Amino acid sequence: MTLTELIKVMVLKNMKREKFLTVLSVIGVALGIGLFTGVKAASDKAISSFEADIRGTNPYTNFEILDTAGTDFQEEIYRTVRKIAQNSFPVLKVEGYLPEIKSAIDIQGIDLIRTAGFLKLSPGRGSSFENYFRGLNSAIITRAFASSHSLKRGDIARAFVYDKEFSLRVSDIVDDASLPSNIFLMDLGNFQEYFGKTGYLTRIDAEADETTVSEIKKILPPSLSIGKKEAAIRNQKSLIKSFRYNLQFVSLIAILVGIFLLYNTIFISVVKRRTEIGILRGLGASKKTVVLIFMIQGLILGIAGSMLGILIGQVTAYFSVTAVEKTITSMYRAVSITDYFIPKTDIALALALGVLVSLIASAAPSFEAARIRPNESTREGTFEGGHRRMRRAYALAGLVLIALGCAVSYIDYHSMPYDFPFLAYAGILFIIFGFTLLSPSYLSLVLSGLGRPVEKLFTSVGVITVGDIKGSVYRFSVALMSVAISSALIFALLTLIFSFRNSLKAWINKNIAADVYVKPASCRSNFCFFPLSDELIKTVEGMPEVAGVDRFRTLQIDFQGRKVVAGFGDREIRRRSGDVGLAEEERRAERDFGTDRIIGVSKFLGIKFDLKVGDTVELRTPRGVQKFVVYDIFSSYSTTSGFVYLDRKWLMKYWGLDDATQFAVYLRKGADVPAFISRINEILRPRFSLSITNNAQLREHVLSIFDRTFAITYAIELISIIVSLIGVINTLLALVIEKKREITILRYLGGSWGQIRAKLVLSAGIVGVTGIFLGGIMGPLMSVIFIEVINKVSFGWEIHFHIPFYYLSIVTAVLFLITLSAGLIPLNVAKGVDPKRLISFE
Amino acid sequence: MVTLEGVQKYYGTAHVLKGVDLKLGKGEFVAVTGSSGSGKSTLLNIIGGMDRPDAGKIFVDRNEISSYDDEKLTLYRRKKIGFVFQFFNLLPNITVIENVRIPLLLNGSRDEEMAHAFVSRVGLEGREDSYPHELSGGEQQRVAIARALVHDPDIILADEPTGSLDSSTGRAIMGLLTRLREETGKTILLVTHEEYISRYASRVLKIRDGIIRQ
Ligand SMILES: Nc1ncnc2c1ncn2[C@@H]1O[C@H](COP(=O)(O)OP(=O)(O)O)[C@@H](O)[C@H]1O
Ligand SMILES: [Mg+2]
């Protein structure tokens, strides 16, 4: 094909000549795509580790039998179930923690012999099945886990399980990608005996069809239920999906900035090569050829960008895996991600994204190029003229889009048609595009207002610069928008983070009031589901400095048909121990509603079920369906899956339980907290392994989880700043290249480099100021949508709007200074210009 | 071979061509002279398919190109026309040989031999890999002539080909054009405002007030 030859001559050579521009654009695209891919890979790994966990060790089973409260149940029922469904497998599981390698693990007791076939166990290879049973603490681990923590067969690992410390011996290593990597498999009998859970099961996995299922249903007690695994997987996935969507959406905005950059590059290339295109058309090149030349230029940049992006994504994935892992562990349940390599599908996605980005970015400039007439080579035409006539229409379309974006976001706010805030995402994109269309009018408006003072302030340089920008409003608008989008993103995200952090602090002050908090060391999440030993609680209660122990029980319950976490606390203890605020609130509510059957509901559930204070809700308990009155709709920052709060007396009455999964200790006035903690440590250490924190530590811990979660957001901000700066450099650079002749003439006429520098810096400054100002309008708008819509739909966290003026002004100043210095880079390029070459060209 | 009947052209309200009639025979070398701004380039652009007349007809080999759409005009320029401009109009970022190859590539031919042959014919052997800015004005115009001839067009249109060269270089360029015309038998239409250039032509026409005078 002669086209490839033409491309080589017309595209590749040109890109080689403009290495700097090319490299800048490639990096800009790569950063956006890399961030997107990395974040996606990291959160997908978390999701698939969730999924593998539910699928369990028997890949052919499609149903699971669970206790409705999420607790372990008596194993007798298994015998009956097995008679109905041959292929059913008992599982007893618990979360553990290996303190030496700082990793959460999932310990499962299973029928090893019956599952051996699925698990590719290799008892023949130098060992026998007996090996697995010899020693109660034998555990089989995965190859992935073994190699990432360098564990060998025969190694002994210290492990926190339930509220005690144990040791586990690695008896074999299996290679099975379908298993969660952090799983420790034990023989069921050994597990029961070793951890003192004789007679209990957590789950029964079953392979069954509909008739078998209905038969099983008949024999199950009301506390047990059978459900499809697929449904459970879907449920679990949707929990972290909102988390993932939000991260991905923000990185999508970084890609958007990349699109602007690429658009800028191609557009500038078209402007700069207008004469060349005219010549080419004169020689008989068709419009199609011209379009192809620029589309392919864009495509090459886009694909090169996405290839580099895959590398960057790999690095991003490496770092975000830790953040995602920690956040999901504390919000939902322990996950451990050992593999952070981007999968092939995501590599393909990154490439596709690169192609898409480059097509979007280069379409408009390419068709613009095709409109250049063949005789334009002989006569200067005004390239911007066509746009100028359209400016009004653009501005109008822009306003319509902005209004549409707000409307769509409002619909999402008001009626939430989807489980995820897709409408709000679309709304934000509409708003960004709207502002983009509006930007040329905005810039020329500003210039006509700003022109005079600037000209006065900077005299001749001012006149030239303002005239220059006026003559290239469209090119400058593109640079302006890159700055505007990234500063809007900074404004919006900083506002979100600060508002969120402040609200969280207020919540902490209200809710973290006890002196000491105790939970099992094996539990890494905010909520634990495994009961603590009675002996442990008795010991603490009996200590002289203790004023009261608020025993807290978390349970999974059925709330209006949805599985949610319920917390049962002891109001009487809290009231007696001096934490009167909340207790008083409850007492007042009881008086107002005339009943003590009251329930607090997290905002997330309040939104999902459209609940108001005073509404009646239904809970399914082992003692039948019970009605409660909603007395409070509160913010829960500890989980995103929905949370309800009830008094302990109902736990006893309807669930028949009186245990605790974690507890808070109130000390007598004047008691020495550190001394108390070291004393209970001393007494309990030998028998229990616990995580004991004082009030301040717990507060700090909650905030540190928050900060870690938002670390990714900071990276996104940083990257979009970099990309938008590249955009500014790019525009100015292109202008310098385009104006090379003018610069040389200016030099001949006695203009100094100082004046040229002043002109470039002034241009950059104008782009910076106008861009940041526009971002200052877009940003708050975006942050309102982030907080009021996206947060509401995905998490329902209570966030009080709070604009961090102080930080924002510092960040703005820094951003402005960086933009100014972006004006200096093109100067060096201008200096490197060879005057001979310029003069001989025209 | 080329016939113009009552060709008119306006730029806004300016009536630049007011009814041009012209006949070019095959293999003829015709020069059109006229003062600056008299519409010479406009006339050439219209014949070359770069621009369209507002009235009148243009026939090339009995095809009425004045009725062509953009796509057909593009093909016409690509196959039938070789252009030589006052300011050379070489593509600045590619080498001499690449510049000469462009018309061939656009016509779907990868023939490098042909390009080399034409570079030699205009006397630039050994300069194939130079860039336009490394060449003198005269040399650049030689490249442009090679580019105008390489794809074997029927008609060469030259718009003040010596206009930006000194007179001795200009003469050399005209010598080259004449020699190549004799060798290839191409039809040449050349416009110039310099009297001495028109002496190379076999027929000289004058354009004034938008009308061709014999
Ligand atoms: N694209 C154009 N737009 C407006 N006026 C034009 C354009 N091209 C040529 N003209 C005008 O038409 C007249 C003839 O121009 P041209 O054909 O270039 O003259 P010549 O080549 O004889 O110097 C001039 O007055 C010129 O200003
Ligand atoms: Mg002319």
Reconstruct the topology from this structure.
The complex is a heterodimer of chains A (842) and B (214).
Chain A: H1 2-17, H2 19-55, E1 63-67, E2 73-74, H3 76-84, E3 88-98, E4 103-110, H4 112-119, H5 129-133, E5 138-142, H6 143-148, E6 156-161, E7 164-174, E8 183-187, H7 188-194, E9 200-201, E10 203-206, H8 210-219, E11 224-228, H9 229-272, H10 274-282, H11 287-331, H12 344-370, H13 385-415, H14 422-471, H15 473-511, E12 516-520, H16 534-541, E13 546-559, E14 562-569, H17 571-576, H18 580-593, E15 598-602, H19 603-608, E16 616-621, E17 624-634, E18 643-647, H20 648-655, E19 662-667, H21 673-684, E20 690-694, H22 695-738, H23 740-748, H24 753-794, H25 805-822, H26 825-831, H27 835-841
Chain B: E1 2-11, E2 14-24, E3 29-33, H1 40-47, E4 55-60, E5 63-64, H2 70-80, E6 81-84, H3 96-106, H4 112-121, H5 137-149, E7 155-159, H6 167-184, E8 187-192, H7 195-198, E9 203-208, E10 211-213
Helix pairs in contact in B: 3-4, 3-5, 4-5, 5-6
Magnesium ion is lined by residues 40-41, 159 of chain B.
Report on the architecture of this protein.
Chain B: Keywords: ATP-binding, Nucleotide-binding, Transport. The complex is a heterodimer of chains A (842) and B (214). Chain A has 842 residues and is an alpha+beta fold. Chain A folds into 4 domains: 1-57 and 234-380, no CATH class; 70-222, no CATH class; 408-423 and 440-466 and 477-513 and 696-842, no CATH class; 534-687, no CATH class. Chain A has 27 helices and 20 strands. Chain A starts with a helix and ends with a helix. Chain B has 214 residues and is an alpha/beta fold. Chain B has a single domain (2-213), classed as 3-Layer(aba) Sandwich (Rossmann fold), CATH 3.40.50.300. A 6-stranded mixed sheet of chain B has the order 6-7-8-3-9-10. A 4-stranded antiparallel sheet of chain B has the order 2-1-4-5, covered by helices on one side. In chain B, helix 3 crosses helix 4, helix 3 packs parallel to helix 5 and helix 5 packs parallel to helix 6 (167-184). Classes of the chains: A alpha+beta (842), B alpha/beta (214). Chain A binds chain B through residues 2, 5-6, 9-10, 13-14, 17, 275-276, 279-287, 289, 373-375, 377-378, 836-837, 840-842, and chain B through 41, 45, 48-51, 70-71, 74-79, 81, 83, 85, 87, 89-94, 98, 101-110, 132-133, 147, 159. Magnesium ion binds at residues 40-41, 159 of chain B. The site of adenosine-5'-diphosphate (ADP) has 11 residues of chain B, from strand 2 and helix 1.
